[in-house]
Design goal:
Strand order of the largest sheet of chain B: 4-2-5-1-6-7-8
Shape of chain B: globular
Structural class of chain A: alpha/beta
Shape of chain A: globular
Oligomer: heterodimer
Strand content of chain B: 15-25%
Order of helices and strands of chain B: HHHHEHEEEHEEHEHEH
Distance between the termini of chain B: 41 Å
Number of strands of chain B: 8
CATH superfamily of chain A: Cobalamin-binding domain
Largest sheet of chain B: 7 strands, parallel
Number of helices of chain A: 5
Radius of gyration of chain A: 15 Å
CATH class of chain A: Alpha Beta
Strand content of chain A: 15-25%
Strand order of the largest sheet of chain A: 2-1-3-4-5
Order of helices and strands of chain A: EHEHEHEHEH
Largest sheet of chain A: 5 strands, parallel
Chain lengths: ~140, ~260
């Protein structure tokens, strides 16, 4: 895609960072949002207590390439399952999904089966998320072309 | 699969195709908005693919100082009983960093529980453009009206004492101000304070500081000239949902006048 009015400048990728379910701890989500902003992304921050339907609806309206969810409530499996359904209902099939928070090792495989592309438990260095997201977006781009 | 079909088309062809398709409207609205924002394609180019704007549709701009409460007032408007039956679209701008990134946080104030088909809300990074709003804003607005939205709100980035003027496409410009940014001398200065059809002093909880609003009105009356229509001065609190009815009245009054 070219940007005709500002010349060579590349158009930033868009990421939705959201807090899903009954979980009021947003420090991690805000730190990741800010970090990704500094890495050149346009980050839409949704705020707290979103339902899976809210997240899918926001992803559609904001036309994001990736959704990052911060979940510390332990409900990641049912919430992500619902989110997948809500995304499918809205014909959103190619968005990258990554999850951060308190995710036990044992839940990683089931999450990946549900279609989660990246899992970043608490204490993950920010740069690891940044590098992964950059690679993942690049991969999708080359798949398209 | 749908997306892959368009890959070899130019951006322009893609926009025209999406404007013409009735299927999967929510995705089309979103995609067209992105393509217009990213490409800067002008209104004249897509004009022939667009349905005419209905006479009762409204285009409202919210501008004002950073943190003055633009998003909160917008949230009150989206929830207001007189506006709830209008399909609403929002373009909410936030500043971009030099590196191009942006934290788009206008959604945080959004507590409206409108059904999905009655609200399209897009957060937009300003992307270091030389103008406050994109040069093809008219194209984006026309596309939103084409998709059947009755009222479109544009929330600018927070503005200060210097900026270019806003494009002359709005039915109403609401300038959101607060009274915590200095004394009455600030009112007499130039810049943003001179902008808008309505100046809404926000964060006036239960009428406190109302005397300063009155000082502003007195200054305004003293300097009225024949050629300039003074801005309507309103005050209230988005937090307490005070004064919002007055603002909605201003908007509703436009409905019969707007072409």
């Amino acid at each position: 895609m070219t940007n005709s009015h500002s010349g060579a400048k590349e158009i930033p990728s868009r990421v939705l960072i959201s807090k899903i379910g009954l979980d009021g701890h947003d420090r991690g989500a805000l730190i990741v949002s800010r970090y990704l902003k500094d890495q050149g992304y346009e980050v839409v921050y949704s705020g707290l207590h979103k339902t899976p339907a809210d997240v899918a609806s926001i992803a559609l309206q904001e036309d994001v390439q990736a959704i990052g969810l911060s979940i510390l409530s332990g409900s990641h499996l049912p919430l992500i399952k619902q989110l997948k359904t809500e995304l499918e209902n809205r014909n959103i099939n190619s968005v990258i999904i990554f999850v951060g928070g308190t995710i036990p090792k044992a839940d990683e495989a089931p999450l990946r089966e549900l279609g989660v592309d990246g899992i970043f438990p608490t204490a993950t260095p920010l740069s690891k998320i940044g590098e992964w997201l950059k690679d993942e977006l690049q991969k999708r781009k080359s798949l398209k072309n | 699969m749908e997306a892959e079909r368009y890959i070899n088309m130019t951006t322009f062809d893609e926009i025209v195709t999406l404007l013409g398709s009735e299927a999967d409207k929510p995705n089309s609205v979103s995609k067209v908005t992105t393509l217009l924002l990213d490409s800067g394609i002008e209104y004249e180019k897509i004009k022939s693919s667009l349905k005419k704007r209905t006479t009762n549709s409204l285009l409202i701009c919210l501008t004002g100082l950073p943190g003055a409460g633009k998003s909160s007032i917008l949230n009150c408007l989206l929830k207001h009983k007189d506006l709830i039956n209008f399909k609403a679209a929002v373009l909410a701008f936030d500043p971009s960093s030099k590196k191009g990134g942006a934290l788009l946080g206008d959604r945080i104030r959004l507590t409206s529980e409108r059904p999905e088909d009655s609200l399209f809300f897009r957060s937009v990074g300003h992307r270091g453009s030389l103008t406050t709003l994109p040069s093809n804003l008219d194209a984006i607005m026309a596309a939103l009206f084409h998709f059947g939205y009755d009222i479109v709100f544009v929330e600018t980035v927070g503005l200060g004492q210097t900026q270019d003027s806003l494009p002359e496409i709005f039915d109403l410009i609401v300038n959101v101000q607060t009274l915590t940014n200095g004394d009455e001398i600030q009112f007499a200065k130039s810049g943003l304070i001179e902008t808008g059809d309505v100046i809404f002093f926000n964060k006036i909880e239960n009428g406190q500081n109302l005397n300063l609003v009155n000082v502003f009105k007195q200054q305004q009356m003293a300097s009225i000239s024949d050629e300039s229509k003074p801005a309507k001065v309103l005050s209230g609190s988005a937090l307490q949902n005070q004064g919002i009815d007055d603002l909605v009245s201003e908007i509703m009054a436009l409905r019969n006048r707007v072409k």
